[in-house]
Amino acid sequence: MNSDESGARTSSLLTATDKAQSAIVEFDSKSFAVKRNGKVSHGDVFVGNSSGRTLVADLTGATGAEPRLRQSWVTDGKTIQLSWGKLAANTSYKISRDGLYLGTVKSNTFIDRHPTVKAIYTVQAVAVPSPKEVKDQKLTSSNESFGYSWNIRTQLQADPNISQVMALPDNSHHTKVWYRTFIPSQYITIPSITPGCEYKSPYKHGGNNRGYNYDPYSSFKTQQAFEVSWTDPNYFFVSNQVGATHVYDSANKLVTSRTASNSGMKIRRMSAWAADRQDVSGTESVTNPFCSSLTGSIGSSWRIYMLRNGSYSMSGSHKQMPNHEIYMKYGSEWVDGIGNALSIKVLYKRDLLNPACLWGSAVCPEAQILSNG
Question: What phi and psi, each to the nearest 5 degrees, are found at residue 226?
Answer without folding.
Answer: -145, 155
